């Protein structure tokens, strides 16, 4: 293993602190980490993930269906039952090996299995590395919306092996880039000119700092949801349609970021130059800022009203002269106008 190429970032949460390890060729290290701490391990992974772990302890692999369908209470029930049959106990370990879907689901199973079991995330997608695997938000979806049932349950460690990104499909890469673009607006940093390792590590560092200061999203952690209110709505609509038309999470967030920029502009919070910067940043990541032609503009509004952050009113993370902030009670007619202009 090339020690030079490994960066470790701590998520500082007192006794629940943990390391996020970013580098190449980390799987051997994952086995060392596990075998020095646990006797029995359940690996939760997903169809079509071309990676597996060679573990030197008693372990079994549980494979869940592909795409967002795995994030359901039915799958939680199925996987938990299989863990019980396998004989997994509270002092054993769950490993979530995969992208955001697997780490969200695996983390949720871990948080409820035996009222809370240790887990680690081994992220194999860019989105997982820069966002989903870090920070302890776990969830599954309901028909009524994404991530409506979940928990805050921190992993014991997160491993981001950049070699796994070499097999990542293009749309999954763009999904990660959507979240990376988000960090440019949160931190006013640019990742340009950095190596992939530096870029991933920088995003993790920004996220770790927000999580450490506001673990349960009482305040500033909500800013990490920039672009997500419309993003989730578009993503959910795509999911209800045929798979060919679906947008990945990060691609939908990219549209949501531009929407949030336009809304902030319409509300007089930012000027035209800053709105233009939104478009330019998204394009620099190769992301589309427009709504897909199949989007049903009217039902997007209804979906956004049900967003977890909204508490009954239309709530968005919006840019302004002093940076991003959560803005409540945004006028419905204004939101409608901006959706129709997208
Ligand atoms: N993905 C946003 C968060 O973890 O807070």
In short:
With 342 residues, the protein is an alpha/beta fold. The chain has helices at residues 27-35, 73-86, 100-112, 126-132, 170-187, 196-213, 228-240, 249-266, 272-284, 297-305, 332-341; strands at 7-11, 18-23, 40-46, 58-64, 93-98, 118-123, 137-142, 145-152, 157-161, 316-318, 325-327.
Q: Which helices and strands appear, and what pairs or packs with what?
A:
Layout: E1 7-11, E2 18-23, H1 27-35, E3 40-46, E4 58-64, H2 73-86, E5 93-98, H3 100-112, E6 118-123, H4 126-132, E7 137-142, E8 145-152, E9 157-161, H5 170-187, H6 196-213, H7 228-240, H8 249-266, H9 272-284, H10 297-305, E10 316-318, E11 325-327, H11 332-341
Parallel strand pairs: 2-9, 3-4, 3-5, 5-6, 6-9
Antiparallel strand pairs: 1-2, 7-8, 10-11
Residues 131, 135, 137, 221, 224-225 line the site of glycine.
Q: How would you characterize this protein structure?
A:
This protein is an alpha/beta fold and 342 residues long. The chain folds into two domains: 3-169 and 186-212, Rossmann fold (3-Layer(aba) Sandwich); 226-341, Dehydroquinate synthase-like - alpha domain (Dehydroquinate synthase-like, alpha domain, Up-down Bundle), CATH 1.20.1090. The chain has helices at residues 27-35, 73-86, 100-112, 126-132, 170-187, 196-213, 228-240, 249-266, 272-284, 297-305, 332-341, and strands at residues 7-11, 18-23, 40-46, 58-64, 93-98, 118-123, 137-142, 145-152, 157-161, 316-318, 325-327. The chain has a seven-stranded mixed beta sheet, with helices on both faces. It is globular, with a radius of gyration of 20 Å. It binds glycine (GLY). Glycine binds next to loops. The site of glycine (GLY) has 6 residues, from loops.
């Amino acid at each position: 293993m090339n020690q030079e190429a490994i960066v470790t970032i701590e998520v500082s949460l007192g006794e629940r602190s943990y390391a996020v390890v970013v580098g190449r060729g980390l799987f051997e290290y994952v086995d060392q980490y596990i075998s020095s701490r646990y006797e029995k391990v359940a690996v939760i992974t997903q169809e079509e993930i071309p990676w597996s772990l060679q573990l030197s302890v008693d372990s079994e692999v549980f494979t869940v269906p592909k795409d967002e369908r795995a994030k359901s209470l039915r799958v939680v029930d199925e996987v938990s039952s299989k863990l019980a049959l396998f004989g997994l106990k509270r002092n054993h370990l769950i490993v979530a090996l995969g992208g955001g879907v697997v780490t969200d689901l695996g983390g949720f199973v871990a948080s409820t299995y035996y009222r809370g079991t240790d887990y680690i995330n081994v992220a194999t997608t860019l989105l997982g590395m820069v966002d989903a695997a870090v920070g302890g938000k776990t969830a599954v979806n309901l028909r009524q919306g994404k991530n409506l049932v979940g928990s805050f349950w921190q992993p014991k460690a997160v491993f981001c092996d950049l070699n796994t990104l070499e097999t990542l499909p293009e749309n999954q890469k763009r999904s990660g880039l959507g979240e990376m673009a988000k960090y440019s607006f949160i931190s006013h940093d640019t990742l340009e000119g950095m190596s992939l390792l530096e870029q991933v590590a920088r995003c993790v560092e920004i996220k770790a700092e927000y999580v450490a200061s506001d673990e349960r999203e009482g305040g500033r952690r909500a800013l990490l949801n920039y672009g997500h209110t419309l993003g989730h709505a578009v993503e959910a609509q795509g999911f209800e349609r045929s798979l060919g038309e679906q947008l990945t999470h990060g691609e939908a967030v990219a549209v949501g970021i531009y929407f949030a920029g336009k809304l902030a502009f319409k509300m007089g919070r930012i000027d035209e130059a800053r709105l233009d910067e939104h478009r330019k940043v998204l394009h620099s990541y190769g992301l589309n800022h427009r709504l897909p032609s199949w989007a049903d503009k009217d039902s997007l509004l209804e979906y956004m009203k049900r967003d977890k952050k909204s508490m009954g009113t239309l709530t968005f993370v919006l840019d302004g002269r002093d940076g991003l902030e959560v803005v409540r009670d945004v006028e419905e007619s204004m939101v409608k106008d901006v959706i129709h202009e997208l």
